[in-house]
Specification:
GO molecular function: methionyl-tRNA formyltransferase activity
Order of helices and strands: EEHEEHEHEEHHHEEEEEEHHH
Function: Methionyl-tRNA formyltransferase that formylates methionyl-tRNA in mitochondria and is crucial for translation initiation.
Distance between the termini: 81 Å
Subcellular location: Mitochondrion
Family: Belongs to the Fmt family.
Radius of gyration: 25 Å
Number of domains: 2
Structural class: alpha/beta
Oligomer: single chain
Keywords: Mitochondrion, Protein biosynthesis, Transferase, Transit peptide
CATH architecture of the largest domain: 3-Layer(aba) Sandwich
CATH topology of the largest domain: Rossmann fold
Helix content: 25-40%
Strand content: 25-35%
Shape: elongated
CATH class of the largest domain: Alpha Beta
């Protein structure tokens, strides 16, 4: 039976009777779920960086850890250190593979078990992989939960035949290699004139639960909440030919429909100074501006990307000259 050292930041530790004889856990600082799990289950707990590992363990396992492991540490484990990664490497190397799987509309993903190599993330040889068909309209949170469970089971299968897996490991090729950088707030800005309905939908499903989608309105940032997807707005509802960023209040569904590159997408609420329903935002802000006809006044009833907001600011400035 294997003696295993488990490195992780925010995932739960899994073991299986008859495969793992001892299990000890390493976490980074902070009150993270795996730390509480280890304490509740009386697993020995270590802070990063660990010490006293010489000759004590057969294999290490890394899950969602985020730190490069030095070669001197890797060499202390006879079977090396394994990584459970939620993508089909070499696609989506890096810290946010699940988010980028959704963001780019991948129909197939999976889990990879690889050996850790020093100096670079996610480049080690593959010991095992399992494919997974991404469900339609799946969010990053939903996909991440599914892949975490898959990864736990695949790790156990890999440990059951570890010597054989290591003998038959295969190096990753560069063909199809992509990078999955961390999700940042800057990714949540919508560019109405460039993004399609499908792209906005994928963006919301990828980051919306953690970072609200953003747009500009009259020089202020608005957070768009409760996305409803693509919606139909008849031309009879419009007082002018719609341009990207145009906003139409849909009374029947209590939705703010916003025109993008190839159609309309809907939101049921926004966050300005406080959270407002679509009806509240329309009645309190948009209704009076959509009755007016000058270019500058019409712009007050429209959402803009950051670039577009700069152009509107210049338009307003010129109109006052």
């Amino acid at each position: 039976m294997l003696k295993m050292f488990f490195f992780t930041y925010n995932q739960r530790a899994y073991t299986s009777e008859g495969i793992v004889e001892t299990l000890e856990v390493v976490t980074l600082a902070g009150d993270v779920p795996v730390k509480r799990f280890a304490q509740e289950n009386h697993l020995p707990l270590h802070s990063w960086p660990p010490d006293d590992v010489n000759g004590r363990f057969d294999v290490g396992v890394v899950v969602s850890f985020g730190c490069l492991l030095p070669e001197r540490l890797i060499r202390k484990f006879p079977y090396g250190i394994l990584n459970v990664h939620p993508s089909l490497l070499p696609r989506w190397r890096g810290p946010a593979p699940v988010f980028h799987t959704i963001l780019h509309g991948d129909s197939v993903t999976g889990v990879s078990i690889i050996q850790i190599r020093p100096h670079r993330f996610d480049v080690g040889p593959i010991l095992n992989q399992q494919l997974y068909q991404v469900p339609e309209n799946c969010t990053a949170d939903e996909l991440g939960g599914t892949l975490a469970t898959m990864g736990a089971h695949l790790l156990i299968k890999t440990l059951m035949s570890l010597s054989e897996r290591m003998e038959n490991q295969r190096e990753q090729g560069q063909t199809g290699a992509t990078f999955a950088p961390k999700i940042k707030t800057s990714m949540s800005w919508i560019v109405w004139e460039e993004q399609t309905c499908d792209q906005i939908d994928r963006l919301y499903r990828a980051v919306g639960s953690r970072i609200p989608l953003r747009t500009m309105w009259m020089g202020r940032t608005i957070k768009l909440l409760d996305f409803t997807g693509k919606c139909h707005v008849s031309l009879s509802d419009q007082r002018r030919n719609p341009i990207p960023g145009s906003v139409s209040f849909q009374k029947d569904s209590n939705t703010l429909a916003v025109c993008c590159k190839d159609g309309w997408v809907g939101f049921r609420s926004v966050l300005l100074k406080k959270r407002l329903t679509a009806a509240d935002f329309y009645n309190g802000y948009l209704h009076r501006t959509q009755q007016k006809n000058t270019l500058c006044q019409m712009a007050e009833g429209q959402f803009f990307s950051k670039k577009g907001e700069i152009e509107v600011h210049q338009m307003r400035k010129n109109s006052k000259l």
